[in-house]
C-alpha cells in the first residue's frame, strides 16, 4: 500500500475539465468487460495479457506521454500550439498553391465520417458511392491530360514521378535501359524523390537538358524515359513535342509532370506526345496542409494498364446485369504478385481524390476554365506592371508563375514579409511568384508594392484593373483546342441543392463506421473521434505552404516534436521520421535506412531480405523497391516463423544478409514466443530487423519493437493512432529507428540535390513532413488517452478479439492460438471445410455478411479459405455480439445446406448480397423466402444498410476494361 502523501507534497492533481476521453474511445463498459472476461475464462485484463503476451518481451518502461487530457483541454492546448503558426499568403508555387474548398465539399465530405471512415473498396458491392466518385476523378484526370487511362490516385507529385520512372523501366524490354533523364526544370523536391528511388532500384538518374538528349545521356540506347515539368518549376511553358519525338526515336518514354489547372487552357500532354502524365490535384479544392495529404495523379496509354502503379477503378456489371464499379484486375495483381509487383503502392489518397473530383463536378469545365483564366489573367497583370518598370520576367509564355529578375531581391523579400506574403527565392537571387485561386486584385497590388514604389504600383494597378483580366486568352502557342469534362456528371451539379443530394446519394451507397464495425484483420478500423478530426480544417494548419520560412511554422514544429517524442517512447526507439506519407512509404524508408547503414560500413553487398511466407503483400515488393533480394522463410503449422528454416536461411545468406521483415504480433494473430531469438539470429549474422507496424495496436503500453529486439519499424498512423482510412487513404507511415540507424532517416527534399554526400538516404516524399496536416489526429489521440488510456486500449483490443474467438469457437474454429490458447488482437477463423461440405466459399460468407449490414473480415489471408477478424477496442460488447450473431446465423444457413435442407446453388449465401430492388421486384425466383434474403435477423428491420448492387462480375470487367465514366443512360436512377 502506497503511503499517504503529506499535505503540500508531491505533484498537484488538477481535476480534468470534461469527461475522461478513454472511456469514450474504448467501447466496452467496465461491466461489459467483466462479463467478457468471464466468458473467456480469466479474471482481469492483466491476467489476459499475462497469458497472451510473452513475459520475456513485456516492457518495464513507462510510456513517456503526458497525462490524459479531456477533449476540451486537448483542443485548448492545441489551439495555443497552432497559434504559433503564421499564415502568410504564399506565392512560392513549386506544386503547392492556395485554393478554395467549396463549403459543400468541406462540410459534406472532408468533415463527414460517412466519407472518411470508409475502408478501402475491396468489397465493391458496399463501396459503390466512393467508387463512382473515384471514377469521376479518373475521368477528370484522363480528360485533362489527354491520356485514356488514369488511376484512382497516388501519394504526392514527387512519388508519382518516381512511380512513373519505375514504370518506364518496367515497360522497356531491353535490360540495359537503366538511365532516366530528369529535366533540370522540374520541381527540386520531385528531382530529389526520383533520385532516391533511382538509387535504390539501380536506375541511373541524370539531371540535364531534355532538349539535347545526346549531350545529357552518353548512350541513348540505355535511356528508358525522360521527365519534364509542364509548365517548368519557374513557370515557363516549353514545347516538348520535339523532345517526345527524339525520345520515342531512341525507344524511350516521356513523362510530363503537368499542372492540373493549367491543362484547362494549354495543350494536354497526351496531345503532344507524352506517354505518362503525373502531378498533383491539390489545387482542386484541397488545402496545402504544410505538404499534405493531397491526391497525386498518374495517367497513361491503355496498353500500359498492367504496368500502372496503384489502384484503378473499372466498370463491370452485377448479377442482375446492372452497371457496377470495382477495382480492376491490375489492382488485385499488385497485391498478389509480391516481389514481382510493379510497385509497393498499397495506399492511395482516396478522400482527397474524391474531393478533387467533386471540385471538378462542382465547377464543371466552364467553371474550371474561368478559374484558370482568372489565375492566368492576374499573373499577366503582375507581368505587365513589372514590365513597365523594366523588371524582366522573361520572354517565354507562362500560366501562373513568374521568375522576376529584380535588381533588389532583398528589398522585395523584406517588403513581402512586411505585407504577410511569401515569395520563392532562387539561388541566383531571382524571385518566384505563383498566383492561385485565392489571389485578388488587392493581392496583386501588394505584390507589385514589393518591387516598385507604392504610388507607382497603385497607378499601374488602376490602369490595369480596367482590363478584362478574367478573360485573357490562353498562353500564346499553347492553346488547348480539345474539349474536356463533357460527361453529364460534370455539367449538372452546379447548384448546391443538387450537389448536396449527389454527395449524399453516393455516401448512402457506402458502408462506413457510421453504420457498423468493420472487422478487418490487420487493418484496425477503430474510432476516429470527432475531437481528433476537428483541428484538421483549422486554417492555421491547412493554409501553410510546406516550404514557407521556418519561423512561420513554429506551431507545426512543436506538434512534430511532441509526436516524435511520444512515438519514440511507444516503440522503444531513439529517433523518428514523420516524412513517409503512407505505410508502403514507411516500409520503403525503413529498408532504405537499413541499406544506408550497411553501406556506411562498407557492406554494399548486403542485399538479402528474409521475409516470412505470411508477410503482408507490400513487404516483398517494398524490399525490391529498396534494392533488396527477397528470400522467403517458412512458417510452421501454428503460423509462427519456422525457426529452423530461418536459421538455415540466415546462415546460408550470412555474407549478404541485410534484413528480416516481420510483423508482430504475427500475421496469424498470435504473439510468437521465439521473437527475441529470431531477432538474435538475424543480428548474429550481421543483419537488421525491420518490424512492420501494422499490428502495433497490440503492443502499445505492453511491449515495443525496441524491447523485442527490432532495429526499425514503421507505424501505420491510420491504424494504431486513429488517422481514418478515408476509403483507402490518407495514411501516414512514419518510421522509428534505433540510435545506430538515426543518421539514415529520410533526408529533406530541398537539401542539396536531394541526396546527401554523407551516406544518408534521400527523401521518400515531396514534403519533409509528409502529410503534415493530419498529424494533428494522432497528437490529439495520444494527448487525450495518456499512458494508462493507451495501455488499456491495447488490452481491450486483445479482450475483444478473444471474446469473438470464444463466442464463435463452436461455429468457426480459430486456426491459430498462442501457447495458452489465446489470440492477440485478431483471430483467423477457418472456413475451409465449408467448400467440400456445402459448396460455400469464404467469398460467399463475405457477401452474405452484407445482408446483415456488416463489412466482411479480411478474406483468405494469411491463409486461403479463412476470415481474419479484428474488432478493435472501440467496439462495445453489443456490437461484438451483433457481429457474432450474424456469423452464427450464417453458419446455421451453411448447416442447412450441409443437411440438404437448402439447395447447394440456390441459397442465400450464393446469391448474396441482396439489393432492395431485387427483394422488392415483382418476380422472385429463389427457393428461399424474400424475408430470409433481406432480413436474416429481426433487428435488421429497425436499421439496415442495403448494398447498392448485387454480386459483381469481376472477370467481365477485366475483359471489358472501362475506367472512365460510362454514358449517363447506364446509371441507375
Largest sheet: 7 strands, mixed
| Terminal residue distance | 69 Å
Q: Can you give the mean pLDDT?
A: 93
Secondary structure tally: strands: 24
Beta-strand fraction estimate:
5-15%
Number of helices: 33
Instruction: Point out poorly predicted stretches.
Output: 1-13, 332-336, 753-759
Q: Fraction of residues in helices?
A: 25-40%
* Strand order in the sheet with the most strands: 2-8-7-6-5-3-4
What general outline do the C-alpha atoms trace? globular
Structural class: alpha/beta
Cα Rg: 28 Å
What does this entry look like structurally?
It is built from 33 helices and 24 strands. Strands 2-8-7-6-5-3-4 form a 7-stranded mixed sheet, with helices on both faces. The chain has a 7-stranded mixed sheet with strand order 14-20-19-18-17-15-16, sandwiched between helices. Helix 3 packs across helix 27 and helix 27 crosses helix 30. The longest helix has 39 residues, at 350-388. It is globular, with a radius of gyration of 28 Å. The N and C termini lie far apart (69 Å). The model is unreliable at 1-13, 332-336 and 753-759 (pLDDT under 50).
Which features does this protein show?
33 helices, seven-stranded mixed β-sheet, alpha/beta, single chain, 24 strands, 973 residues
Topology:
Elements: H1 22-25, H2 30-40, H3 45-52, H4 71-82, E1 89-91, H5 103-110, H6 113-116, H7 128-145, E2 149-150, H8 157-171, E3 179-183, H9 188-201, E4 204-208, H10 213-216, E5 223-230, H11 241-249, E6 253-258, H12 269-272, E7 276-280, E8 296-300, E9 313-318, E10 323-327, H13 329-336, H14 350-388, E11 401-404, H15 409-418, E12 421-425, E13 431-434, H16 441-449, H17 454-464, H18 496-507, H19 530-533, H20 539-542, H21 554-571, E14 575-577, H22 583-600, E15 608-612, H23 618-625, E16 629-633, H24 643-652, E17 657-663, H25 675-684, E18 688-692, H26 705-708, E19 712-714, E20 735-737, H27 776-808, E21 827-830, H28 833-838, H29 842-851, E22 858-859, E23 866-869, H30 877-898, H31 916-919, H32 930-934, E24 952-953, H33 954-959
Amino acid at each position: 500500500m502506497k503511503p499517504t502523501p503529506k499535505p503540500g507534497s508531491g505533484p498537484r492533481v488538477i481535476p480534468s475539465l470534461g469527461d475522461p476521453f478513454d472511456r469514450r474511445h474504448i467501447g466496452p463498459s467496465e461491466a461489459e468487460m467483466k462479463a467478457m472476461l468471464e466468458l473467456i475464462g480469466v479474471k482481469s485484463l492483466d491476467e489476459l495479457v499475462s497469458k497472451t503476451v510473452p513475459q520475456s518481451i513485456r516492457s518495464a518502461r513507462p510510456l513517456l506521454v503526458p497525462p490524459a487530457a479531456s477533449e476540451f483541454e486537448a483542443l485548448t492546448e492545441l489551439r495555443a500550439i497552432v497559434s504559433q503558426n503564421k499564415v502568410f499568403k504564399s506565392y512560392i508555387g513549386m506544386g503547392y498553391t492556395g485554393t478554395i474548398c467549396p463549403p459543400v465539399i468541406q462540410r459534406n465530405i472532408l468533415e463527414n465520417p460517412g466519407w472518411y471512415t470508409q475502408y478501402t473498396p475491396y468489397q465493391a458491392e458496399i463501396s459503390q458511392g466512393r467508387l463512382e466518385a473515384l471514377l469521376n476523378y479518373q475521368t477528370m484526370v484522363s480528360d485533362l491530360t489527354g491520356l485514356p487511362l488514369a488511376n484512382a490516385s497516388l501519394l504526392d507529385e514527387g512519388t508519382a514521378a518516381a512511380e512513373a520512372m519505375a514504370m518506364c523501366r518496367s515497360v522497356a524490354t531491353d535490360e540495359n535501359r537503366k538511365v532516366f533523364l530528369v529535366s533540370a526544370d522540374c520541381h527540386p523536391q520531385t528531382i530529389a524523390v526520383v533520385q532516391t528511388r533511382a538509387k535504390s532500384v539501380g536506375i541511373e538518374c541524370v539531371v540535364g537538358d531534355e532538349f539535347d538528349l545526346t549531350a545529357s545521356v552518353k548512350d541513348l540506347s540505355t535511356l528508358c524515359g525522360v521527365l519534364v515539368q509542364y509548365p517548368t518549376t519557374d513557370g515557363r511553358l516549353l514545347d516538348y513535342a520535339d523532345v517526345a519525338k527524339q525520345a520515342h526515336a531512341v525507344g524511350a518514354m516521356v513523362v510530363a509532370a503537368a499542372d492540373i489547372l493549367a491543362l484547362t487552357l494549354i495543350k494536354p500532354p497526351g496531345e503532344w506526345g507524352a506517354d505518362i502524365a503525373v502531378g498533383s490535384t491539390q489545387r482542386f479544392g484541397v488545402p496545402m496542409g504544410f505538404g499534405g495529404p493531397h491526391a497525386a495523379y498518374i495517367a497513361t496509354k491503355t496498353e500500359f494498364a498492367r504496368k500502372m502503379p496503384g489502384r484503378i477503378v473499372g466498370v463491370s456489371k452485377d448479377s442482375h446485369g446492372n452497371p457496377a464499379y470495382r477495382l480492376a484486375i491490375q489492382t488485385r495483381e499488385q497485391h498478389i504478385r509480391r516481389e514481382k509487383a510493379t510497385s509497393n503502392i498499397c495506399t492511395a489518397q482516396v478522400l482527397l481524390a474524391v474531393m478533387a473530383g467533386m471540385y471538378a463536378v462542382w465547377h464543371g469545365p466552364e467553371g474550371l476554365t474561368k478559374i484558370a483564366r482568372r489565375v492566368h489573367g492576374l499573373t499577366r497583370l503582375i507581368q505587365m506592371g513589372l514590365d513597365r518598370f523594366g523588371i524582366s520576367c522573361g520572354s517565354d509564355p507562362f500560366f501562373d508563375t513568374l521568375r522576376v529578375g529584380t535588381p533588389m531581391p532583398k528589398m522585395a523579400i523584406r517588403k513581402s514579409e512586411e505585407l504577410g506574403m511569401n515569395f520563392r527565392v532562387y539561388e541566383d537571387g531571382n524571385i518566384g511568384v505563383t498566383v492561385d485561386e485565392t489571389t485578388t486584385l488587392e493581392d496583386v497590388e501588394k505584390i507589385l508594392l514589393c518591387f516598385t514604389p507604392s504610388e507607382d504600383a497603385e497607378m499601374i494597378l488602376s490602369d490595369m484593373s480596367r482590363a478584362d483580366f478574367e478573360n485573357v486568352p490562353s498562353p500564346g502557342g499553347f492553346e488547348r483546342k480539345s474539349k474536356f469534362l463533357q460527361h453529364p456528371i460534370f455539367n449538372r451539379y452546379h447548384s448546391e441543392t443538387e450537389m448536396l443530394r449527389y454527395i449524399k446519394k453516393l455516401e448512402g451507397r457506402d458502408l462506413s463506421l457510421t453504420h457498423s464495425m468493420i472487422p478487418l484483420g490487420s487493418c484496425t478500423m477503430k474510432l476516429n473521434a470527432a475531437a481528433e478530426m476537428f483541428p484538421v480544417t483549422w486554417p492555421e494548419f491547412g493554409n501553410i505552404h510546406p516550404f514557407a520560412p521556418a519561423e512561420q511554422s513554429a506551431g507545426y514544429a512543436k506538434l512534430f516534436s511532441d509526436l516524435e517524442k511520444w512515438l519514440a517512447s511507444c516503440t522503444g526507439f531513439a529517433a523518428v521520421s514523420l516524412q513517409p506519407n503512407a505505410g508502403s512509404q514507411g516500409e520503403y524508408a525503413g529498408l532504405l535506412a537499413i541499406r544506408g547503414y550497411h553501406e556506411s560500413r562498407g557492406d554494399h553487398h548486403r542485399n538479402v531480405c528474409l521475409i516470412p511466407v505470411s508477410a503482408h503483400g507490400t513487404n516483398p515488393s517494398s524490399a525490391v523497391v529498396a534494392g533488396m533480394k527477397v528470400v522467403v522463410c517458412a512458417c510452421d503449422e501454428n503460423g509462427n516463423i519456422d525457426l529452423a528454416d530461418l536459421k538455415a536461411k540466415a546462415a546460408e545468406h550470412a555474407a549478404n544478409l541485410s534484413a528480416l521483415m516481420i510483423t508482430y504480433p504475427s500475421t496469424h494473430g498470435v504473439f510468437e514466443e521465439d521473437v527475441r531469438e529470431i531477432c538474435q539470429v538475424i543480428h548474429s549474422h550481421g543483419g537488421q530487423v525491420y518490424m512492420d507496424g501494422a499490428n502495433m495496436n497490440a503492443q502499445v503500453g505492453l511491449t515495443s519493437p525496441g524491447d523485442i529486439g527490432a532495429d526499425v519499424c514503421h507505424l501505420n498512423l491510420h491504424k494504431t493512432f486513429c488517422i481514418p482510412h478515408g476509403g483507402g487513404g490518407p495514411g501516414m507511415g512514419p518510421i522509428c529507428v534505433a540510435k545506430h540507424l538515426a543518421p539514415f532517416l529520410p533526408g529533406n527534399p530541398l537539401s542539396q540535390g536531394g541526396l546527401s554526400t554523407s551516406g544518408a538516404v534521400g527523401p521518400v516524399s515531396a514534403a519533409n513532413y509528409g502529410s503534415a496536416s493530419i498529424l494533428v489526429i494522432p497528437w490529439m489521440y495520444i494527448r487525450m488517452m495518456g499512458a494508462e488510456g493507451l495501455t488499456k486500449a491495447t488490452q481491450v483490443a486483445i479482450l475483444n478479439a478473444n471474446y469473438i474467438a470464444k463466442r464463435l469457437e463452436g461455429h468457426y474454429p480459430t486456426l491459430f492460438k498462442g501457447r495458452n490458447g489465446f489470440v492477440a488482437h485478431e483471430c483467423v477463423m477457418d472456413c475451409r471445410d465449408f467448400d467440400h461440405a456445402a459448396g460455400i466459399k469464404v467469398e460467399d460468407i463475405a457477401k452474405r455478411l452484407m445482408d446483415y449490414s456488416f463489412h466482411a473480415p479480411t478474406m483468405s489471408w494469411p491463409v486461403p479459405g479463412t476470415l481474419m477478424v479484428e474488432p478493435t477496442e472501440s467496439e462495445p460488447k453489443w456490437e461484438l455480439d451483433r457481429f457474432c450473431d450474424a456469423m452464427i446465423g450464417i453458419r446455421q444457413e451453411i448447416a442447412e445446406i450441409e443437411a440438404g435442407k437448402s439447395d447447394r446453388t440456390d441459397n442465400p449465401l450464393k446469391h448474396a448480397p441482396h439489393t432492395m430492388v431485387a427483394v422488392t421486384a415483382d418476380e422472385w425466383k429463389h427457393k428461399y423466402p424474400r424475408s430470409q434474403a433481406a432480413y436474416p435477423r429481426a433487428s435488421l428491420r429497425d436499421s439496415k444498410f442495403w448494398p447498392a448492387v448485387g454480386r459483381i462480375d469481376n472477370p467481365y470487367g477485366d475483359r471489358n476494361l472501362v475506367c472512365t465514366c460510362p454514358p449517363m443512360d447506364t446509371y441507375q436512377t
